[in-house]
Amino acid sequence: MPKNSSLDRIKIFADGASLPSMLESARDPRIAGFTTNPTLMRKAGISDYRAFAKEVLAVIKDKPISFEVFADDVPEMRRQAREIATWGANVYVKIPVTNTRRESMEGLVKELSSAGVKLNVTAICTLEQVRDVARALAGGAPSVVSVFAGRIADTGRDPIPLMKEALQICRASAPSAELLWASPRELLNIVQAAEIGCDIITVTPDLLKKLELVGKDLADFSLETVQMFFKDAQAAGFVL
Questions:
Q1: Left if phi > 0, otherwise alpha if psi is -120 to 50, otherwise beta: which for 116?
Q2: Nearest partner of 137 among 121, 151, 148, judged by Cα
Q3: Partner residues linked to 145 by β-bridges
Q4: 94 catalytic per annotation
Q5: In this structure, how many other beta carbons lie within 10 angstroms of the beta carbon of residue 185?
Q6: Residue-wise over 110-119: b if at least 16 C-beta within 10 A, else e?
Q7: Which of 48, 94, 167, 201 could covalently link to 120 via disulfide, CB atoms 3.0 to 4.6 Å apart?
Q8: The listed CATH number (3.50.50.60, 2.40.50.200, 3.20.20.70, 3.40.30.10) that belongs to domain 6-213
Q9: What are 181's strand-pairing partners?
Q10: For residues 70 and 38, what is the distance between their CA atoms, to the nearest angstrom?
Q11: How confident is the prediction along the chain (240 residues), in pLDDT tens digits per residue?
Q12: What sign does the CA torsion over 13, 88, 69, 122 have?
């Protein structure tokens, strides 16, 4: 990345649940933290949640990492959150903004945050949810507000105005909370998130590889594209 890039203003968290990939990212100075979720863990073939987390935390000790509760009722969410929080000083507990019955977890978020549990409130897609979560996090432990800008964009809506307002809400109501742009779809999203002042963005391994393209000369990129087409045509043995 070129120096003085706008990307210098945002923290990049690696998003995934592949242990080799996470350990590789832990050695990358561009990566400031990590996020996981049950869906990523299932895709990675993880069956023992606790064992996986402990294996990760044995190596990643100095960067924040989020592990999510997977219960759907408040008492069990509370119990899981309390246990997860004991796994390491760098652990943030992910709490979904609602359960599967659309019941707000605002009360649980406030309880845990007030008790000193560092939270990452996730799956947020509306400004109303941002307001509720920021209110619950006010005066509590350091926290992350994860707004799924990528999913918002998937519905045909421009996420940037919403993310700008979400940032203002967080700054006004919960100064200790950091706003996270979740589920980016392309490298441009990292630039957009940085330019509007988001604190964090999650990045998949595929997007991380594209960071080297930031600021690349477009004429050079054009030539490389032409060369790629030419080489592939030759390798395919095309004739007319």
A1: left
A2: 121
A3: 121, 179
A4: yes
A5: 14
A6: bbbbeeebbb
A7: 94
A8: 3.20.20.70
A9: 147, 201
A10: 7
A11: 445 466 788 999 999 999 999 999 999 999 999 999 999 999 999 999 999 999 999 999 999 999 999 999 999 999 999 999 999 999 999 999 999 999 999 999 999 999 999 999 999 999 999 999 999 999 999 999 999 999 999 999 999 999 999 999 999 999 999 999 999 999 999 999 999 999 999 999 889 889 889 899 999 999 999 999 999 999 999 999
A12: negative
Tokens for 142, please give them: 């350091």
Model confidence, pTM: 0.93
Domains of the chain, by residue range, sit at 6-213
Beta strands at 119-124 and 91-96: parallel, antiparallel or unpaired = parallel
Which member of 11, 94, 110, 118 is catalytic? 94
State residue 189 phi and psi, 5-degree precision: -60, -35
